[in-house]
Design brief:
Layout lengths: L5 H8 L3 H10 L5 E5 L2 E5 L2 H16 L2 H17 L4 E4 L2 E4 L1 H18 L2 E2 L6 E2 L6 H9 L4 H7 L5 H13 L12 H7 L8
Antiparallel strand pairs: 1-2, 3-4, 5-6
């Protein structure tokens, strides 16, 4: 499994990015740090993803020290391919449901990301010239999938969902896209004064 960025990991774990970042600061995990563009970037592997998906349960059941022991045992178990149960000290913890959830979300991320063309300057919805982040901005502003399909009739529902997922996992740096399409702005505008 390739290592994921913080935003990708948040998508896989199923948490909003801002909350996910706070959890990562509190949890006893050690994401890999890599240099990219002169900055240290966190990268999350399978052990971190499973741990973070189980974190709410772990906080209730384990002390901070036991959480650290569990994390180390989880890393070791996954490296050896022993994935269903983690044994640490005198304790056993079933991670099967968390592992299944993470694996399903990783496949979903791969499938949706494959619908995005990354060959140019901006990520485009494959087979179109429509920027993924543009569509995600519309959805973030409250547009429904149906609203987007009305203004972009060439898009299918799955492409719109792929754009949103891609944008969530790969936030756009810099200037944001408009939160409304030109067609929607025209429909909302009161042009009756032009009739005079």
């Amino acid at each position: 499994m390739e290592h994921l960025t913080t935003a990708q990991a948040a998508f896989v774990v199923g948490a909003p990015l801002d909350i996910f970042k706070k959890v990562v600061e509190r949890a006893p995990i050690k994401p890999q740090l890599v240099k990219r563009g002169g900055r240290n970037i966190r990268q999350f592997g399978q052990a971190e993803l499973v741990f973070l998906h189980a974190y709410d349960e772990l906080k209730q059941a384990l002390t901070p020290k036991s959480q650290s022991e569990f994390y180390e045992a989880l890393r070791s178990s996954l490296k050896r391919g022993l994935a269903k149960e983690v044994v640490f000290g005198k304790q056993r913890y079933d991670i099967g449901q968390h592992l299944v959830f993470v694996e399903r979300k990783l496949k979903e991320l791969d499938k949706l990301t494959a619908q995005i063309d990354l060959s140019g300057k901006e990520p485009l919805i494959r087979g179109t010239q429509i920027e993924a982040h543009r569509i995600a901005a519309l959805l973030d502003a409250g547009a429904t999938v149906e609203d987007v399909m009305r203004d972009y009739p060439s898009l299918k529902e799955q492409q719109i969902v792929a754009a949103r997922v891609y944008a969530e996992a790969h936030p756009k740096a810099g200037r944001p896209y408009p939160k409304q399409t030109a067609k929607a702005a025209m429909r909302a505008a009161d042009l009756s004064a032009l009739d005079d």
